[in-house]
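TASK: fixed-backbone design
INPUT:
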């Protein structure tokens, strides 16, 4: 740690810079400016999941902004806040950060989270226990297929010694992939088709 000397020549510890989380304040959602070059995307389905999480647990992690109100972390949560009609949300300010630090953190905040893994055995135990407590597992962001695979409820594929369902056991499904020019177009088409009673899945490539 860097040190400085007192007038008598004795070294003293330099006070550490304050952390953004040392002070949390509320700001209007309308005042927050999304990063123009944020490479992370948020599908309408994920925004719905985040909104459901906020309804269940409230706001647990403040978003991070720079001194001008530009978003550095929490873009998906801000979209969920708008969906829920929230006027204000908790905010932390990254004071004194360089432009490079701010742009890098927009990426690092997402990538560092993705680098984590799962202990599948412990995860299965937790999901099974929560299921027994009648908790809605979908609130944690897992798809029904993921929950089924972890809990052992997923149907086993046909093979040696396994009875395969007859040809009439499955219903054929037909789909069309629509390529959108932007995330905004994707969201609009998703909502329109969903409103028409169609089953819609969001795919990001």
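OUTPUT:
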């Amino acid at each position: 740690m860097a040190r400085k000397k007192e007038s008598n020549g004795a070294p003293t510890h330099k006070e550490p810079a304050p952390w953004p989380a040392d002070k949390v304040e509320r700001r209007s959602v309308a005042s927050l400016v999304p990063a123009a070059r944020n490479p992370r995307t948020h599908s309408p389905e994920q925004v719905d999941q985040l909104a459901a999480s906020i309804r269940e647990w409230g706001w647990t992690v403040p978003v991070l902004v720079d001194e001008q109100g530009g978003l550095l972390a929490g873009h998906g949560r801000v979209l969920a806040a708008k969906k829920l009609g929230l006027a204000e949300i908790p905010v932390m300010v990254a004071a004194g950060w360089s432009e490079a630090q701010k742009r890098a953190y927009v990426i690092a905040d997402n990538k560092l989270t993705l680098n984590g893994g799962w202990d599948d055995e412990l995860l299965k135990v937790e999901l099974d226990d929560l299921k027994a407590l009648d908790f809605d597992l979908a609130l944690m962001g897992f798809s029904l297929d993921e929950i089924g695979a972890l809990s052992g409820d997923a149907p086993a594929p046909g093979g040696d010694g396994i009875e395969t369902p007859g040809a009439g056991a499955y219903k054929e499904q037909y789909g069309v992939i629509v390529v959108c020019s932007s995330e905004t177009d994707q969201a609009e088409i998703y909502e329109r088709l969903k409103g028409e009673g169609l089953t819609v899945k969001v795919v990001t490539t």
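COMMENT: Confidence is low (pLDDT under 50) at residues 155-172.
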